[in-house]
Amino acid sequence: MFLQLLATCFKSREDLISSTKEIYLEQGYAISIKCSRKEKYVVLGCDRGGCYRNKLNISAEDRKRKSGSRLINCPFQFRGKKQLDGSWKLKMENNLHNHESSSHMSGHPSCRQLSEEQTLVIERMTRAGVQTRQILSALRQENVNRKVIVRTIANMKFRIKKEKLAGRTPIQALFDELGRGWQSGVESKSGLFLKSKVVGLE
């Protein structure tokens, strides 16, 4: 498997990354970018590589009780380097994993990353009022191997909503959508039709 990758001359950095991820995904391993320098090199490794960094100084007892880390310092690692002719080649630095392969790849955040095309689809369906689970179903129908989960789409919808509000409250955004001077009518019990004017909030 990895010998095929090592023997391949990739047309671009993106081609190298996508091919490596795809091959190892089929084997139950998620590959992510560890570090890179544009037009120079890229280091790819298992997404379970590295160690947990306790930035908040939480005690080991509390951390074990409340949450766990996926990082178990897996040493598996490739290095991709750009050649003089513009192609990209891979070099194996460590071919060993210190854990078993995964049967459910949706548990790996790196497998749930959205492409630009997928993001546009979610944005379009969100603005059309489509529910989260319906969006998920549409994405999976397009590609049965899609690893996106409900939370991924919910997070995207939250970001879209936040960008649309642009710091405004939902009520302020509603008034802005209606526009200044929008007229509404209310019929009173006496049969009179009363006009009211909605004024946008400053």
Task: Give a summary of the structure in a few sentences.
It is built from 7 helices and 6 strands, in the order H-H-E-E-H-E-E-H-H-H-H-E-E.
Textual characterization of the structure:
It holds the Pfam family AFT. One of its GO terms (molecular function) is methylmalonate-semialdehyde dehydrogenase (acylating, NAD) activity. The protein is an alpha+beta fold and 202 residues long. The chain contains 7 helices and 6 strands; from the N terminus they run ααββαββααααββ. The strands form 2 sheets. It has a 4-stranded antiparallel sheet. The chain has a two-stranded antiparallel ribbon with strand order 5-6. A hairpin with a 5-residue loop joins β3 (77-82) and β4 (88-94).
Write a concise keyword list for the protein shown above.
single chain; 202 residues; alpha+beta; four-stranded antiparallel β-sheet; two-stranded antiparallel sheet; 7 helices; 6 strands; 37% helix; globular; disordered C terminus
Task: Note the topology.
Blueprint: H1 2-6, H2 13-26, E1 31-37, E2 41-46, H3 60-66, E3 77-82, E4 88-94, H4 116-127, H5 132-142, H6 150-165, H7 170-178, E5 182-187, E6 193-198
Antiparallel strand pairs: 1-2, 2-3, 3-4, 5-6
Helix pairs in contact: 4-6, 5-6
